[in-house]
Amino acid sequence: MTSEPESTGNSVEFPVETIRSLLFEEFAVIDGLLSELEGDAWYTPTALPGWTVKDIVSHLIGTESMLAGLDAPHVDLDVHTFGHVRNEIGAFNEHWVESLRGTPGAEVLARFRDIVARRREQLGSMTQEDFEKPADTPVGRATYGRFMRIRVFDCWLHELDIRDALGAPGDEGGPRAELASSEIFGAVPFVVGKLGKAPDGARITIELTGVLARTIHLEVRGRATPVPELSDAATSTITMDSGLFVRLAGGRARAFDHRDEIALAGDTTVGRRIVDNLAFTI
């Protein structure tokens, strides 16, 4: 799903203390958002096809339950027939969503708090050695620490989903966002080269403004490779707000609907193909 992750700037690639504390913080932020919900607000549609705010929380409960060693519930529906279910991970998610479909929001929140308390206890006893053990993750065989960084990313992205659906803006920067978005920025070479099909010899600059502002340079020499500086002038330049970039990369928005928020320069055909194919999440 992604390329190799960028360095976190630590001597240990996936430091247990950093990831654990930021995941716990993310759990608390989501809890705070949900604690304000009443009645029909739980059923507000989100950018995710077929899912309401409550469905997103059901999904979070399901993943954390799986990590806690609990089996997925049985449902009397073939979730593979749902139009938004494209793979086995999607089917797994949908079992939890369907199992809680008729459960009131307040009870779903209580379930979320219960599983978070259980996961906080489990993660609290883990060491760096535990984080470095091999594990199956959404991106294949990696380490438990990598999986937990993906959990920060997934929960953070779903926080944004909930905020966007409810019209509840929040701070999208800071340490949680930096750690979570490293999953996105680590995937940029894959997105540019494989999905965006940038041609050999292309020199791409992606200029992001906003709370996650940064400049990303890539050169395509057989494959798209990030570089500190381009060897010559950029052949294509893409400029947009980092919040929009995150939502495009997460498949929550389409570039077509945000043309006036995206500036392209140089070879705009290549630039447009890249922004039209930023979505890389499964």
Under CATH, the topology of the largest domain can be stated as Four Helix Bundle (Hemerythrin (Met), subunit A)
Uncertain spans, ≥5 residues at pLDDT below 50? Answer: 1-10
Classification by helices and strands: alpha+beta
Q: Sheet bearing the most strands, described?
A: 5 strands, mixed
Q: SSE string, helix = H, strand = E?
A: HHHHHEEHHHEEEEHEH
Q: Please name the CATH architecture of the largest domain.
A: Up-down Bundle
CATH superfamily caption of the largest domain: dinb family like domain
Supply the number of structural domains.
2
> What's the N-to-C terminus distance?
7 Å
The general outline is globular
> Gyration radius, to the nearest Å?
19 Å
Strand content: 5-15%
The tally of beta strands, per DSSP, is: 7
The first-level CATH class name of the largest domain: Mainly Alpha
Q: Mean pLDDT score, rounded?
A: 91
Widest sheet, order of strands: 5-4-3-6-7
Q: Could you estimate the helical fraction of the residues in percent? A: 40-55%
Count of alpha and pi helical runs: 10
InterPro entries: DinB/YfiT-like (IPR034660), Maleyloyr_isom (IPR017517), MDMPI_metal-binding (IPR024344)
Keywords: Isomerase
Protein name: Maleylpyruvate isomerase family mycothiol-dependent enzyme
GO molecular function, one term: isomerase activity
What does this structure look like?
- The protein has 282 residues and is α+β, with helices and mostly antiparallel strands.
- The chain folds into two domains: 16-180, Four Helix Bundle (Hemerythrin (Met), subunit A), CATH 1.20.120.450; 187-276, SCP2 sterol-binding domain (Nonspecific Lipid-transfer Protein, Chain A, 2-Layer Sandwich), CATH 3.30.1050.10.
- Helix content is 46%, strand content 13%.
- It contains ten helices and seven strands.
- The chain has helices at 16-34, 53-67, 88-99, 105-124, 128-131, 144-166, 175-185, 188-195, 242-249, 268-276, and strands spanning 134-137, 140-143, 203-209, 214-220, 224-227, 236-241, 263-266.
- Strands 5-4-3-6-7 form a five-stranded mixed β-sheet. Strands 1-2 form a two-stranded antiparallel ribbon.
- Helix 2 (53-67) runs parallel beside helix 4.
- It is globular and about 55 Å long.
